[in-house]
């Protein structure tokens, strides 16, 4: 009689395992019998980059080369004005950090 109880347990566990595998296949779950951590939960989530991008309005200025050229021209003229007053950016290697190093 002791042998038949072991056989029942063996058959019961096999049936449970088969049902679990079938359930996973039907519902698209990932089987993890070892119980180790898996990134599947994160990979399963929907991507939300598009939704975030929709919050920000589309910038028409980037499409128009005339607008971009005008902005660049304004930037250069402002930079030139600052340089004439001696307030422009220093040449490469002439900045505050370079001056500290040379002391």
From TrEMBL:
Residues 84-103 have a biased composition (Basic residues). The keyword Metal-binding does not apply. Pfam families: MRP-S33. Its main location: mitochondrion. Coiled coil: none annotated. Transmembrane segments: none annotated. Keywords: Mitochondrion, Ribonucleoprotein, Ribosomal protein. It is found in: Mitochondrion. Residues 79-103 are annotated as: Disordered. Belongs to the mitochondrion-specific ribosomal protein mS33 family. This is Small ribosomal subunit protein mS33. It comes from Stylosanthes scabra. The lineage of its organism: Eukaryota, Viridiplantae, Streptophyta, Embryophyta, Tracheophyta.
């Amino acid at each position: 009689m002791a042998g038949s109880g072991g056989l029942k347990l063996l058959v019961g566990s096999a049936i449970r395992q088969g049902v679990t595998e079938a359930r996973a296949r039907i519902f698209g779950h990932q089987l993890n019998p070892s119980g180790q951590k898996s990134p599947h939960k994160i990979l399963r989530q929907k991507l939300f980059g598009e939704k975030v991008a929709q919050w920000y309005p589309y910038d028409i200025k980037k499409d128009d080369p005339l607008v971009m050229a005008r902005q660049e021209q304004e930037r250069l003229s402002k930079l030139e004005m600052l340089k004439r007053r001696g307030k422009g950016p220093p040449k490469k290697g002439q900045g505050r950090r370079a001056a500290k190093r040379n002391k």
